[in-house]
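Weekly structure sync, notes
Attendees: PL (lead), two postdocs, one rotation student
Agenda item 3: pending single-chain targets
PL asked that the sequence for the first pending target be pasted directly into the notes so everyone works from the same version. It is reproduced below exactly as submitted, 381 residues in total.
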Amino acid sequence: MIILASCKGKAPQNQSETITETLEIKAQNHTWYYFTDQSFREIDKIQHVPFKQPLPWTETIRISSANNSADSDEEICKAYAVVNRLGILCFEGNKVSISLDKMIFDDRTAGNLIFLNNTPIFSIYKSAFFNDSITEELYKSGQSEHLFLMQFDDKAKISYPIVNCASLTDEPNSEVVDFVWDGLNWLCCIKSITEERNIFSYISWKPTVPLLSLSPANVRNSIVITESDVDTFRKAKEQQDYSGAPERIRKMLTGFSDEVPFIMEVKSAGGSSNRIYSNEIRGAKEKPLNSKAVLSQSWSCVLFEDGTLFMEGALPGKHILRGGRPIAIRLPRLPAGFVYSDFVISNTTLYAAWEESRFYNTGRSGFLKVDLEKTLYSKLL
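Predicted structure, written out during the meeting:
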């Protein structure tokens, strides 16, 4: 756990003393939600969420990826989350809704949320290790599509394909199991299944026309594909040392204990693929804490899996908090075996994903809704 005192105490500080207090989320400022097999429901406590048989994280309902759209002139700054096996969550201030699509999400793994021109894009695939529906007979019969890259139409509330795996390779029984997009080039890992073994190949591709104008019917003539290799893909995905993380993040955590090892996924609001940074502590006995960070134009925020959250800047339509100095917030403590896994902020409402985590399995899951207007701006004037 991060070494933070109780609600009346203070966060550990180094010589800079950047962080001076830790705020606790009050009961009247937050609401719990959990996922059912069809949607989500409000609940008073996580302990009251019905038991759910743990399944591999690729096969169960959980928030697998989330991010904010880029700042815009619109009144509400929207955010989105991909809910594996269910659909897309849309966050609009204190309003949240879900767009379901059984045909797309029911037997596929979904995640990797990114944005292009503020349009949410995500990927889907079938996990051959856990998913029984991915068989050679099923593919040859034409009953299943090699779906890969999808875009979410926020107005129509539907998801539809941009690029299928068959648009990138002629190998049968193939899925794009992972990718990296740097804003221009797409680097993909393709897994092809044969009776003897699984074969991995790597390609780089980029469109010659606007990406959002593509569909599986016309994509072959509108992209340039180049062969790549495993070393290039690994280098693009490898963890970087935390010393190379964005300056805004490092500055925000200046007053945070430098004795805690952690791994941080940093995302730009409305941006391309994330970057992962590791803060390794030599000789540390603790397991590194997982954390997520979002860099928006006017604010930045980091959430650790134990519920410790750091924030700086100004939320939409609000003044800069504490003159630009970081704030530490303690989200409600989760039961043993549960973690906070991701988050977004829409206007002045924070949505933090939580899940019951057991090695590679996930049981119950949902999200916490927090009113930052009451938590921050009524206290830190």
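Discussion points:
- The first strand starts at residue 22 and ends at 24.
- The mean pLDDT is 88.
Action: rotation student to compare against the earlier draft before next sync.
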